[in-house]
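TA notes, week 10

Several of you asked for a full example with nothing omitted. So below is the full record: structure tokens for the whole chain, then the designed sequence directly under it. When grading your own attempts, check the secondary structure regions first.
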């Protein structure tokens, strides 16, 4: 993600809002922005859940949150900066990998393991460790299915960084199914 400060010269340090700002840091420094964020997407209302606030908000960046809320990151950053009284920041959008048509490797016949992470998330945990452990034994050409109540953007970034292919789709209601396979 590239961005350019078009306002005051120099970094705003702890009081800055960029695509890489973590949600927990944003709300710690600018608590008044919680309502602004929630008003931008129904998905963000989950930030009111103290369990998700302690888990997802600590690791999710605003870039990842924009993906979760299906918003352009530039729009999200612009609105938050305006609401916080900060100067504009030009954000260059990057295409999100993992959208589009269902890839050939994602077929229900190849799902080797399915993990419904909703109970883990609802109890305050984070499914990352379980997913990484499960992926260690995932056979080549097999698919791992992860079920979550929202797009697990931070987890997807970690898994991709480990060389896996990832594709997600909206299931019933707010259910997200993320498919993972070895590259």
């Amino acid at each position: 993600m590239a961005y350019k400060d078009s306002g005051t010269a120099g970094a705003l340090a702890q009081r800055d809002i960029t695509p890489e700002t973590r949600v927990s840091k944003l709300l710690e420094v600018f608590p008044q922005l919680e309502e602004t964020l929630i008003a931008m997407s129904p998905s963000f209302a989950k930030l009111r859940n103290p369990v998700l606030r302690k888990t997802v908000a600590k690791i999710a960046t605003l870039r990842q949150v924009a993906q979760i809320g299906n918003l352009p990151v530039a729009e999200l950053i612009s609105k938050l900066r305006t609401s916080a009284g900060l100067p504009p920041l030009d954000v260059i959008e990057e295409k999100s990998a993992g959208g589009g048509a269902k890839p050939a490797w994602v077929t229900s016949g190849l799902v080797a393991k399915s993990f419904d992470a909703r109970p883990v998330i609802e109890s305050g945990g984070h499914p990352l460790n379980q997913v990484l452990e499960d992926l260690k034994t995932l056979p080549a050409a097999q698919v791992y299915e992860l079920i979550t109540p929202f797009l697990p953007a931070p987890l997807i970034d970690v898994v991709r960084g480990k060389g896996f292919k990832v594709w997600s789709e909206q299931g019933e209601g707010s259910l997200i199914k993320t498919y993972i396979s070895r590259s």
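Confidence is low (pLDDT under 50) at residues 1-13. Use that as a sanity check on your answer.
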